[in-house]
Amino acid sequence: MKRTPLLTLTRWLQGTPRKTMLLFAGCAAIGLTMISCGTLSRPIMAPPSVPGASFAGSKACSDCHEKITRDFPTATHARLKAQGKNADNIGCESCHGPGSKHIESGGAANTILNPKKSPETCFQCHLEVRAKFNLPHTHPVLQGKVSCVDCHNPHKGDAKKGGGTSLMSPNDTCFQCHTAQKGPFVFQHEAVRDGCTSCHDPHGTINPRMLLQRNATLCLKCHFQKQLPTTSATLPSSGQVTIVGDNHTTNLTRGACWSSGCHEAIHGSQTQPHFRY
Predict the structure, then answer these.
(1) Is the entire prediction scored with pTM above 0.90?
(2) How many domains does the chain divide into?
(3) How far apart are CA 157 and CA 16, in angstroms?
(4) pLDDT tens, residue by residue, 76-121
(5) What's the pLDDT tens digit per position in 135-187?
(6) How do strand 268-269 and strand 187-188 relate by DSSP bridges?
(7) Which domain holds residue 105?
């Protein structure tokens, strides 16, 4: 009998189960390689839609929004701008939706999408942020009391307000609302100088006050001078935390560093370098 490639493969597969596994593993590897080679290195999101409207291009937007369209090339979001002959330069419409009806109506508000009033437009790309706003402690963005643009620049420069060549610091974004934490203080907590996000996640966490860690665990990220192991004299679930000669174990059983009656002025104090009050 003349041996064919198919007959040879069939006889080889009848040898051992190990050969069969090797064959399927090889096919799977080739398939994954083909998929990865054909996958884009960046996500592609479809622009939002406006019923009955078509895309007009960013040039049409500049007739009324001249300053915004002039500054937009400097914005982080300029990278969302659709390129190519068939894209019609839909930079603005990538977030606001097609603008033909908005132009025809002379700028009627209900003919275009305004992400300031609905964060869902932002969530189309920022899926991980959308998930954080479902956690127990967040800024009230979903309730409409705070908007994404209160903290972010969608049209000019870095999307995060502050930093770089800006005269505004990242903390100033938070201080727009949280004025009591701004100070100035005679004794300021170094963590505040490092940035509010050293202790807080502005989008949301499972912890009260949007803290990154729960209770004293947050403070011990920096204040880890001496942490003794558990002994028979302590509770099985608690170790002795000794900082600058003081045993903090007893106090920490009453609550967090700032709620146990010790370091209550955690952002800064006018009288105490240890932020007692």
Answers:
(1) no
(2) 2
(3) 63
(4) 888 776 666 666 666 788 888 899 999 999 999 889 988 888 888 8
(5) 999 999 999 899 999 999 999 888 888 765 566 777 888 998 999 898 889 99
(6) antiparallel
(7) 58-115
